[in-house]
Amino acid sequence: MFDARPPGVIVLAGDRGRDDPLARAHGVAGKALVPAAGRALLTRVLDTLATMPELHPVRIVAPSAAAFQAAADASRLPRPARQWLAPAGSPAASVAMALEAGVRDDGVVLVTADHPLLKPAWVHALCEGALRADADVAVALVPWARVAERFPGSRRTRLAFADGAMCGTNLFRLRRPAADAAVRMWRRVERERKRPWRLAAMLGPRLLAGYLTGRLERPRAFELLTRRAGARVTAVLLDDGESAVDVDSATDLALIERVLHARGDAGGAA
Fold first, then answer.
1. Which domain does 64 fall in, by range?
2. Are 24 and 7 in contact (CB under 8 A)?
3. Distances in Å between the alpha carbon of 47 and those of 39, 54, 79, 122, 210?
């Protein structure tokens, strides 16, 4: 299923802390600690990763505060399978730091802690697709049609490619060392996000113009992105509409709790 040397996992659980609206509403120290049907978002993600020992160790990028440690302890992921890393100044900086903190030159799966519906099948599909494509960076996407079919009326952020709209899933597979260049580009994008003229120059006119005019097809987009990133970047398509749903709002949380209740996965019992 995976390389002979397993990729390991990075879980991004650092956020805006108590400044996050959901964290404030629930009286917790960060969004990763917001409860979904009785269990913290971080706990639920780690529960899923606990069922995938081929991916261990799990590097948790989160504050070392007692509340975050307690959420990890409440999961089924054993302590020996965990490594704790303090967040850096941004998501991209945190990923760069985690890669430098012992990730071998093979690969790592990147997930976020606000993805409590995470399923092993999605991670398997991502890794297998990355290997087939011989990709340095694999981005899991799901067709918008699948999301709309699963959640009629749901409003999700879409990538409007000419050959079909896609939604992100907050799932990535990174292969070192080439992926390091893509992460460095990501960090530059973060720094320039409020200066669109510099962002346009960084991404390249063909990529940006094609996307903004709706003429850019997905394979061409990733071909151009590969050239700009200095690493082979590919998209891996998932077919489960649930993979697009993370927790960015109270509406998302309510939707996720309905799914968890339907799965029979609610309540505080481990």
1. 9-179+232-263
2. no
3. 10, 14, 12, 15, 41
- Which three-class secondary structure string do you get for 60-109? EECCCCHHHHHHHHCCCCCHHHEEEECCCCCHHHHHHHHHHCCCCCCCEE
Task: Tokens 């939707």: give the residue.
Answer: 255
Owner of token pair 């061409």? 220
- Parallel/antiparallel/unpaired status of strands 137-143 and 58-61: unpaired
Residue 269, in any domain of the structure:
no
Reduced to 3 states (helix: H, G, I; strand: E, B; else coil), residue 224 is helix
What is the tally of structural domains in the chain? 1
Dihedral angle of Cα 9, 12, 13, 17, to the nearest 10 degrees: 170
Q: Indicate whether 168 belongs to any domain.
A: yes
The answer to whether 106 and 176 are in contact (CB under 8 A) is yes
Q: At 255, phi and psi to the nearest 5?
A: -65, -45
CB 72 within 8 A of CB 45: no
Residues contacting 191, CB < 8 A, separation 6+:
none
CB atoms within 10 A of CB 129: 19
Task: Note if the pTM is more than 0.85.
Answer: yes
CATH number at residue 166: 3.90.550.10
CB 221 within 8 A of CB 210: yes
Average pLDDT by stretches of 10, the chain with 270 residues? 65 83 93 96 97 91 94 96 90 86 76 96 95 93 96 86 90 88 77 50 64 79 85 94 94 95 70
